[in-house]
Amino acid sequence: YNDYERRSLLILVRHGRSQDEVDKRFSRWNDCDLSNIGKQQMHQTGQALYQANFSIDICFTSVLKRAIKSLFIIQEEMDYLWLPIYNIWRLNDRMLGNLTGFHRDRAEALFGQNQIKEWLTQSESAPPLLEESSILHPRLNYKYRNISSIVPSTETLNDILKRLLPFFYDQLLSNLYSGKNILVVTPEDTIKTIIR
């Protein structure tokens, strides 16, 4: 065994299905919980990672409870509850602005199915801003108190990339280059951005 030949491993896991997904609501930065289905998904994921005998040194997740709870379940299944966890707000889901909290049917009736699709799939398209006075705006949430001036009110897919770059270079790559195996549990749009 030569330490210099050790290859790092990056495991990206999408958090389990959220209750807002079950209820057909746009959640994203809304801090909704895992659904029962989501909990089952994470137990299965943790068991699969355990059976594959993956070794993990460090864990990253967002500050959203559905991602945090997903990671806890995976760690429990892998007997890795002792591993260090870093909760990084930059790993949060995409901010969908004024769509936050909307039921999908209501949003489609209000904005149109084509417009919703464009906002969700086009790199430079973003939903309307979420008013800063809205009770759903994350700036009003205590967990964002130290970054309230940079919390987005809406985001394009490209904005996620800009938000992720400091994490990517300062934490993800530096840990990979030092030979650590990393588990990241985060939302789907964030994973897609890391991969591209």
Helix-strand layout with pairing:
Layout: E1 10-14, H1 19-22, H2 36-51, E2 58-61, H3 65-78, E3 85-87, H4 104-111, H5 113-121, H6 157-177, E4 182-186, H7 188-195
Parallel strand pairs: 1-4, 2-3, 2-4
Helix pairs in contact: 2-3, 4-5, 6-7
Characterise the protein shown here.
Strand 2, helix 3 (65-78) and strand 3 (85-87) form a beta-alpha-beta unit. The longest helix has 21 residues, at 157-177. The model has no long low-confidence stretch (mean pLDDT 94). This protein has helices at 19-22, 36-51, 65-78, 104-111, 113-121, 157-177, 188-195; strands at 10-14, 58-61, 85-87, 182-186. The chain has one domain (3-195): Rossmann fold. It is built from 7 helices and 4 strands. It is an alpha/beta fold and 196 residues long. The chain starts with 9 loop residues before the first strand and ends with a helix. Strands 1-4-2-3 form a 4-stranded parallel sheet.
What's this model, at a glance?
This protein is of the alpha/beta class and 196 residues long. The protein has a single domain (3-195), classed as Phosphoglycerate mutase-like (Rossmann fold).
Features:
alpha/beta, four-stranded parallel beta sheet, 4 strands, Rossmann fold
Shape label: globular
Please give the CATH class: Alpha Beta
Q: What is the tally of beta strands?
A: 4
Would you give the CATH topology? Rossmann fold
Main sheet properties: 4 strands, parallel
> Which structural category fits the helices and strands?
alpha/beta
Number of helices: 7
Widest beta sheet: strand line-up: 1-4-2-3
The total number of structural domains is 1
Amino- and carboxy-terminal Cα gap: 32 Å
Mean pLDDT: 94
Outline the low-pLDDT stretches.
Answer: none
